[in-house]
Design brief:
This protein has a domain of about 90 residues. The strands form 6 sheets. Strands 1, 2, 3, 4 and 5 form a 5-stranded antiparallel beta sheet that branches. Strands 18-19-20-21-27 form a 5-stranded antiparallel beta sheet. Strands 22-23-24-26-25 form a 5-stranded antiparallel beta sheet, with no helix packed on it. Helix content is about 5%, strand content about 50%. By secondary structure, the chain is mainly β. It contains 2 helices and 27 strands.
């Protein structure tokens, strides 16, 4: 593949940069995000003209500073290089521009590093023609959202010291007209990588929180929650890797924290094997997903829902309330998930409660005569269409109730 052709203005900028370096350069392109060009042309100082930012490297440089960041401005109608920096990594991952509470645009650049999953995040300002790096932090995760709920975005990072094993979540934002670290929270350690991070709330009382899903080296998953209250961030005391343990295998997909019932509060999942699978190896277990809620400021965790998550992760079926008085069993065969009552003492399946079918082409399954087959909808995630077969059991939900409990993803 050849690099994109330069337009007229980019050619002028390129020639101005070559004049500054007095030699050949190799343009570097961000790998993700909104800005994918080596040339970023944007007004970053609120003046009447745009500035140009170019990522490039000098060939045959062996001192570790080959990746460069150059600022150019127009002087007398011509592009001129005004500042040049050594970048923090070997590749540019992404570039963003955000107002993080100081009333001016900040440039946030993520740099990738060779032979590691870590990155460097650089935060820069450009005022009166002068760029300044106000933060440079090594991390395994970075995102921008309103972590404390004050209406102003913050910079959220996770660092993981592989030598000590210590992991920390840090929140950076505006305070007293300065960009500072607002909080640093030690996380439960031992994870191999970050899977997902979302910002939301916990209830009772309602507080802003950041929910972190991480993966362990054995293929299991867990969660931490960083809560904000009274100007302080802290780790939810009720959570630990055992509480939020999630097993993933052929029958159970990876499941992230989410607001599973759309009530504005984020729930935390954990998995438990259905009764008849408890003695099987973890890879062969079919799991129930229990959705937990943090209460009392994160000092207590309670089970909120029991559920089954489809093997493709494309639907969640929340168990009806009256299933609390029965032990449910699940079996998977012929594109159907079958729920039965289960006698945990005799280890015998009882009456059938419900069947859920998945169809790749949208064709409904054959149903028995007089059976009530209900179309549940098509998943945008997998493209599968789902149907339910109700039974005569008093524990089988009504069609209307099933529509409330079945959540397509």
């Amino acid at each position: 593949m050849s690099p994109p052709k330069l337009d007229g203005e980019q050619t002028e900028i390129y020639e101005a940069l070559r004049s500054f370096t007095n030699g050949d350069i190799v343009l570097k392109y961000p790998k993700s995000g909104q800005y994918r060009s080596a040339f970023v042309i944007k007004d970053i100082d609120s003046e009447s003209t745009d500035e140009a930012i170019v990522f490039y490297e000098m060939p045959n440089i062996s001192d570790g500073s080959s990746l460069r960041l150059n600022f150019l401005d127009k002087q007398n109608g011509r592009w001129v290089s005004v500042y040049d920096f050594a970048a923090s990594g070997s590749e540019v991952e992404s570039v963003r521009f955000e107002d993080l509470g100081l009333g001016s645009v900040m440039m946030i650049v993520n740099y990738l590093m060779q032979s590691t999953s870590d990155r460097y995040t650089s935060v820069m300002t450009y005022t009166d023609g002068v760029p300044a790096e106000i933060l440079n932090v090594r991390n395994v995760f970075m995102d921008i959202f309103d972590a404390d709920g004050n209406g102003i975005n913050d910079l959220f990072t996770i660092t993981n010291d592989r030598v000590s094993g210590n992991a920390t979540a840090s929140i950076y934002g505006a305070a007293d007209e300065r960009f500072v670290r607002l909080g640093a929270v030690p996380l439960n350690t031992g994870f191999a990588g970050i899977k997902n991070v979302i910002c939301g709330t916990i209830a009772d009382p309602s507080r802003n929180a950041v929910f972190i899903d991480y993966a362990f080296s054995d293929g299991s998953f867990g969660s931490d929650t960083v809560i904000y209250s009274n100007r302080y961030f802290y780790l939810a005391p009720a959570l630990d890797p055992d509480v939020t343990f999630r097993n993933a295998n052929t029958y159970t997909p990876y499941i992230p924290c989410k607001d599973v019932d759309n009530d504005g509060v984020v729930e935390i999942p954990c998995t438990r094997p259905f009764p008849e699978y408890t003695e099987l190896p973890r890879a062969e277990q079919v799991n129930m997903t229990v959705w937990c809620a943090l209460e009392r400021g994160g000092t207590r965790v309670t089970d909120k829902y029991r559920s089954y998550v489809g093997t493709r992760g494309d639907y969640i079926f929340l168990f009806p309330g009256n299933w609390g008085s029965v032990t449910a069993s699940v079996s998977i065969a012929d594109s159907a998930v079958i729920f039965n009552r289960y006698d945990s003492i005799s280890a015998v399946k009882g009456e059938e409660l419900l069947r859920i079918y998945g169809s790749a082409d949208g064709t409904p399954p054959r149903s028995e005569e007089n059976a009530e087959l209900i179309e549940l909808g098509k998943s945008e995630l997998s493209g599968f269409t789902y149907y339910a077969l109700l039974t005569q059991s008093t524990f089988s939900p009504s069609g209307e109730k099933l529509g409330e409990l079945f959540r397509l993803q």
